[in-house]
Amino acid sequence: MARPLRRALGVELVLAAGFDTDSLGTFCGERPRPADAATTCRLKAEAGMAATGLDLGLASEGSFGPHPALPFLPLATEWMTWVDRRHDLVITERLSGCRTNFDHCTAAPGTPLEAWLTRIGFPRHAVIVRPHQPGAEPFLRKGVCGAAELTQAIHQASTASADGLALVETDMRAHCNPIRMAAIRALTFRLARRIATPCPACGAPGWGPVEFLPGLPCGWCGSPTSLLRAERFGCVRCEASEEHPRRDGLLQADPQHCPYCNP
Q1: Contact status, residue 37 vs residue 79, Cβ threshold 8 Å
Q2: How many C-beta atoms lie closer than 10 Å to residue 70's C-beta?
Q3: Dihedral sign, Cα of residue 7, residue 12, residue 17, residue 23
Q4: Which terminus of the chain, N or C, has fewer Cβ atoms within 10 Å?
C-alpha cells in the first residue's frame, strides 16, 4: 500500500501499533464482526488514527463468501477507507469480484489433499485447521504453511471433532494470502486515484462511484435485467452526482440474463 500512496498522493504510510484489530471481528470466527465490512473498515482507520495521533487514517477489510448468483463460485470483495479528520472526509473504495482462493475441504488423517492444496496455492498461501464438528476440546490452528505442520494439525483437529474429520480452510488474513495482498495493492491504486480526483462542483477530493445501477435491458425484449446498467458518481462532501454508462460500453444484456426470455 505504501508505494501507490507515496507516488499518487505524496504521503508516507505509518503503521499503527497497540490496537488489536481482532476486536472488530476475525476471519476465523473466534470473534464475530459486529458491523458490516464497510463500517468495520472505517472503524479500523479511526482506531489507527487514535493510536498514532495522526489526522489521516487508512484501513482495509475483506469479505468472502459464496457468489449470490452462482453459489458454487466464491465472491471476494475488498474495501479500503481513507479518513481525513482535518477536512471531515471519509472516502471509501471497493474491489468486488477480484481473484480469490477462498475455499475449504474436510479431511481425516491420511486423506490425500495434494490436488486441493495445489489449487489454493499452498504453502505460499497458508491454511486454517479446525474440527469439522467441534467437541468439548476447542482446537484452532491458523497460518499453517508446512506439510508436517498440516499433518499434525489435521490429526489434532480430527481427534477433537465429533465426526473424526478436520476442516481445512484457506487462511484469508492478508499477510497469509498473497492473492489478497495483490488485490489490496490494486485497490490502493484505485483509492489513490479517487482521492486525487476533485468533485466538479465543490472541488473536494474523492469524486467517484457511489452507487451501482442495475437494469441493463435485454437484447431481445428490452426488459430490465439484474446486470449493471450504469454507475452513479458522487461527492463525499456535497450532493453533486452524475450518472455514467458502463465502462465496457455494453448497452444490452444477453437474453440468458433476462427473467422473461430465460425464466
Answers
A1: yes
A2: 9
A3: negative
A4: C
Q: Identify the CA nearest to 219 among candidates 177, 186, 251, 183.
A: 251
Q: Are 60 and 187 in contact (CB under 8 A)?
A: yes
CB atoms within 10 A of CB 253: 23
- pLDDT exceeds cutoff 90 at 12: yes
Cα-flanking dihedrals φ and ψ of residue 90, to 5°?
-130, 115
- What mean pLDDT, rounded, does the chain reach? 92
> Topology of domain 104-171, per CATH?
Dna Ligase; domain 1 (3.30.1490)
In the prediction, which pLDDT does 26 show? 78
Question: What residue ranges do the domains of the chain occupy?
Answer: 1-100+175-196, 104-171, 200-263
Can you tell me the mean pLDDT for 33-54?
Answer: 92
3-state secondary structure of 223: coil
What would the pLDDT profile of 56-110 be if each residue is shown by its tens digit? 999 999 998 887 766 678 889 999 999 999 999 999 999 988 789 999 999 999 9
DSSP E strands, the chain: 56-66, 74-84, 89-96, 104-107, 127-131, 141-144, 166-170, 208-214, 228-234, 241-245
Give start and end residues of each alpha helix (H) in 107-146: 114-120
Q: Which three cell numbers stand for residue 9?
A: 498522493
Picking from 56, 59, 75, the residue whose alpha carbon sits closest to that of residue 67 is 75
Q: What backbone torsions phi and psi does residue 2 show, to the nearest 5 degrees?
A: -65, -45
